[in-house]
């Protein structure tokens, strides 16, 4: 597990995924047998690794990435993006199964080369698509599959929160996120997520129109030193999407680290269709069918009397929806043991990198761009 001293590698992948899988006795396979996991913590800070290993009763840790790859059955990477392609390529060439955070590379060229290497080596590779495993989006996808929406018309997404600049209060995100030269930026970070969310909920993303902005030009780093924010901290995107049935859907997603939250969750998606609408966050999903849709009348001279939020119904889980990161880990490990492809692989990840690149290009050129199909 490379990069477990970082926020995502530690919280979501080690503490909330691998350790619970270990402590529950492993993963149960389709034939009833079980496999167990034995994490090896890898990073650059030996003192931190030793501390984490002792805290969580993990026997093995090392700062030697090459040795860890050579000894592993599965190589996981959550380190910095600019270091990721070399780590993943080395692991695949050694016949190791790979599970990785995204983006998988800083450029589309690198991302496609990784996807080609996966095809050549035949190893099982999984890329974290955590949001599709979250309860809110699982419920939303179920509504799509059941035909609840009728013909889907549009999707609107709102993501983000206020990230403090770091002067009066410490920033809750690392400073490299706001330096383009270090691989930071909202578009690079989040458009790879929005690509798989749109694919997983609606269909193929055909075009992108984006506006990227650096709203906060100066921030303060972890040592309290002021630095210039060279990366975009907000991205406003419009995407043309085509469903498997051939319907055209307009998707709009706003992403910002310079916005204050006035919604129920840090990310929300609203899907509108001819027969119904639904709003989904990370955990909750609420829906309104055509037969229960009110008929408001615009009258700015009178106060609003319609209790609009009360007119929506909660969509039940109808099942035990565990932590999304853990659920995907379990699915990937079962695929790796069986030697079969994981449904979210390096080609899917390359499409996410492609959308981010084209989003930045769209903003720079001020125009809508078509998204060509990636052919390996």
Q: How would you sum up this structure, described in words?
A:
α1 crosses α8, α5 runs antiparallel to α9 and α7 packs across α9. The protein is globular, with a radius of gyration of 22 Å. Helix content is 32%, strand content 23%. A hairpin with a 5-residue loop joins β12 and β13. The protein has a nine-stranded mixed sheet with strand order 17-16-15-14-8-13-12-9-18. With 376 residues, the chain is of the alpha+beta class. It contains nine helices and 18 strands.
Question: Can you lay out the helices and strands and say which pair or pack?
Answer:
Elements: H1 7-23, E1 27-28, E2 34-35, E3 40-42, H2 46-55, E4 60-62, H3 65-71, E5 74-77, H4 84-93, E6 97-100, H5 108-121, E7 125-127, H6 135-145, E8 152-160, H7 186-201, E9 204-213, E10 218-220, E11 226-228, E12 234-242, E13 248-256, E14 267-273, E15 276-280, E16 285-289, E17 313-314, H8 324-338, H9 346-365, E18 369-370
Helix pairs in contact: 1-8, 4-5, 5-9, 7-9
